[in-house]
Every structure is written in structure tokens, then in C-alpha cells.
């Protein structure tokens, strides 16, 4: 599956690391579901920082084109907003590389610093501000999402993609069982001076071993 490759190829580089756990999540219940994913532990790596439903990734202010990505995360019924869900996102810079500052530790040595964490409130919404990444290695431009549910399950979802990307294939556009319930292809529209994309998720949708 191409969408899996887009996500998995970059994560093959990541090693395991130790990190502080969410105090509201029982560490004994934390487990990876949905198949192998080296580096998905990054979703646990926010340590003691207080997460909110909105985050701004590094270099947003100085980099174009700026984008805002927003949506709602729903429970498995596809209707009830999911509260307390952590969404981790990361992507390349405008040169198609994962940039580093030189002082990275653990997973960030390969991973770089263009990442962020968002945690949903009662309405299940999330928003993050960043810039559009570049294509690399024959892959379309993409942003990787990882989900951590309050019950401790965490897993990768298909990447955020962009509708105007010439690298998108028919397989990308016509995924039959997209993880999270959507193929992740964003049609950006200008709102208040910034390009906005919207994508909703359904927890566990088409994620093997989630139940």
C-alpha cells in the first residue's frame, strides 16, 4: 500500500526511546496496535508539557506556504467527539529533509524538530499551523500523523496529502480502507489569508487489531 509506504519509509530510521508518559494514561495499558511502526513511540514523547487542541510547528512564521490543518476526531461510532486524544504530527522542510539543530537526543537524532502534539478537548477538534512540506524520494508531499487514545492504544494513520500534488497516484486517491476513515487528501482553500485543509478521523477505523 502506497499510503503505508509514505508513512513507514521515514519511520524505519527511528529507534526506540524512553520518555515520560501521559499522567492520565496508565503506562501498563500503553500498546502499539495496527501493525509494526518503528518510531510511533514519538506520540508519547511530549513529556511534562501541557497539550492543547491547537499547536504551531517550528518555522511556521518564517516559511511559506503557510497552512492550517483542522478537523474533528470521533469515537468509533463516527458521531461522538473523542476527548483526550493526542495527535502527533511531523514532516520535512521545504528542501524535503528532516532538519536537525545538532542537539537532538534519542528519536529526534533521526527525526528532527518539525513536529508537534495536539490534544483534543470535549468537542474532539484539533488544529495545527505549519507550512507545506516538500516532496522527496518520489513520494508526494506529506505530513505524518500518529494517534494516542486515552486507553493507551497508539497507531499510525495514513499521511496528510495534498490534492494538487502531481505525485499522487490513483491508489492514493482511491484507497478502499483508509486508516482513520479518510484517505487524507486535503483540498486547501484560502481562509483569512491562510490555506486551510480539513480532515476528520474515526478512532480505530480500519486499524487492524484495534478492537
Give the arrangement of secondary structure elements.
Blueprint: H1 2-11, E1 31-32, E2 54-56, E3 66-74, E4 86-90, H2 108-111, E5 115-119, E6 125-131, E7 144-148, E8 153-156, E9 161-162, H3 170-173, E10 185-186, E11 189-191, E12 194-198, E13 201-202
Notable traits:
211 residues; mainly beta; Protocatechuate 3,4-Dioxygenase, subunit A; 6-stranded mixed β-sheet
Structure in words:
With 211 residues, the protein is mostly beta strands. Mean pLDDT is 88; it is low at 3-23. The protein has helices at residues 2-11, 108-111, 170-173, and strands at residues 31-32, 54-56, 66-74, 86-90, 115-119, 125-131, 144-148, 153-156, 161-162, 185-186, 189-191, 194-198, 201-202. The protein has one domain (2-17, 26-202): Protocatechuate 3,4-Dioxygenase, subunit A. The strands form 3 sheets. Strands 2, 3, 6, 11, 12 and 13 form a 6-stranded mixed sheet that branches. Strands 1-8-7-4-5 form a 5-stranded mixed sheet, with no helix packed on it.
